[in-house]
Write a structure and sequence with these properties.
It contains three helices and twelve strands. The chain has about 160 residues and is mainly beta. It has one domain: Roll (Pnp Oxidase, Chain A), CATH 2.30.110.10. The strands form three sheets. Strands 3-2-6-9-10-5-4 form a seven-stranded antiparallel β-sheet. The protein starts with 5 loop residues before the first helix and ends with a strand. This is Flavin reductase.
Length: about 160
């Protein structure tokens, strides 16, 4: 087997089309925290478990690690600007964003195609990321909504289902 570079690995991973999410929580001081993530997967139906991962270098890691609850908001095709906003550093990511508190208090992004409110069940160190496993306590979806997808380092509108 031939060796490959980090860039080769990243480019190959980019060929897998994913959905786009914004993961949100409220920290111990009541501040809203949110970030764009496309590393979201289902784990189990019984109990209802999902996972997502976050870089160890993320500025949001301390708040997410300490949080008892968070929400995963699956973005709609018309929410590309939000995905880009929540990926930026050094700004108030929630400024001008329409949201409401979920049952757990975590922010739910208005217009998302689905949302999953989770208890922060476990965290696992894996390479340069932390894998978060959440137990879903509540979920909702918008039937027929068009999702935002990510492929090859770019955002695309999904197909209406």
């Amino acid at each position: 087997m031939s060796a490959f570079s980090t860039e080769d690995f990243r480019a190959a991973l980019g060929q897998f089309t994913t959905g786009v999410t914004i993961v949100t929580t409220v920290d111990d001081e009541g501040r809203k925290v949110g970030l764009t993530a496309n590393s979201f997967n289902s784990v189990s139906l019984a109990p209802p478990l999902v996972l997502w991962s976050l870089s160890r270098t993320s500025g949001s890691l301390p708040a997410m690690s300490a949080s008892r609850r968070y929400a995963i908001n699956v973005l709609a095709a018309d929410q590309r600007v939000l995905a880009e906003r929540f990926a930026r550093k050094g700004i108030d990511r929630f400024e001008g964003v329409s949201w409401r508190p979920g049952l757990s208090g975590a922010p739910l992004i208005d217009g998302a195609v689905a949302s999953f409110e989770c208890d922060n069940r476990s965290q696992h160190e894996a390479g340069d990321h932390i894998i978060f496993v959440g137990e879903v306590t509540h979920c909702r979806r918008r039937v027929g909504a068009v999702p935002l997808v990510f492929h090859g380092g770019r955002f695309f509108s999904g197909l209406a289902l």
